[in-house]
Amino acid sequence: MGPDNSVSRSTLVSQTVLFFVARGALFYICRVYLIRSLYKLSPETQFNSAAFTASSPLATPTTPRSPSRSGDNSYFELGKLPAPNVSRPHFRGSTTRWGLGPTSVARSAFALCFSESCSLFLLVMCQAYGIMSARSRYVNWEISLVTLVVLILILIPALQCLFVAYRPNKLDIGVSIPRRLALPFFFFSAYVLILLRIPLVGNSKEMDTLTAALARLSVMGTVVLGTLSGFGAITTAWMFADALGKKRWEGITKQDIASAEHSLTRVRNDLDLRNREAQALELQHTKNTQPRSWGSRFLGAFSGESEATALRREIAGLRALEVEMSRELEHMRARQARIEFSKTLGGRIWNAGGWLFGAYCAFRVLNSATNLLSLFFGIRQYPTSMPADTCIPSPEASCAGISTAPPDLISGALGLLVSLVPGIPLERSEADQVARQISLLLVGCIVLSSIRVVLIGVGKILRVTSRSVLTSLTLLILAQLMGTYLLSTLIQLRTSFPPAYSAGDGTGNALSLFSTLPAFEVFGWIFDAAFLISACITTAWRWLEGRLQGM
Question: Which stretches are transmembrane (predicted)?
Answer without folding.
Answer: 12-34, 109-131, 143-166, 181-200, 220-241, 438-458, 470-491, 522-544
